[in-house]
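Bench notes, afternoon.
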Amino acid sequence: MTDEDAAVTAELLTSARAALELFHEVHVDDDGALSFRHGDVPCAVQAMRLAEGLTVLSLTCVVAWDLPENRDLAVSAAERAGQGLFGTLGVVHTERGMDVTLRYAFPAEGLKPEPLSTLLMLVVSTASQLRAELLASAEGGA
């Protein structure tokens, strides 16, 4: 990473932090990434400069973890993933059950804090809604 890349990504993370702090307490990690919680959903934001003029923010929300291995629940999550406009849903099968994440990456260079906060809140509110739905389905199937 060049010094210019580092400066551009740092500036974008500063903007993202200002946008998020309108709604959340934000922690800055040692590597510069941002982390926060939207309700019970932990989230992280990173910035990457893919090319000159193309710097993206990547938002990852951990929607649920250790859900019971349940085919219907996995199918429901997969169907929900196809409906999403803001993010890609991932399901990982572990020894303890299923983990679900929501990831969204978008070009954000030049966005002001207010529109940036709107976009970020659309993603994290989707993650929170999905968490509630998945936990209700998991409890109903138990």
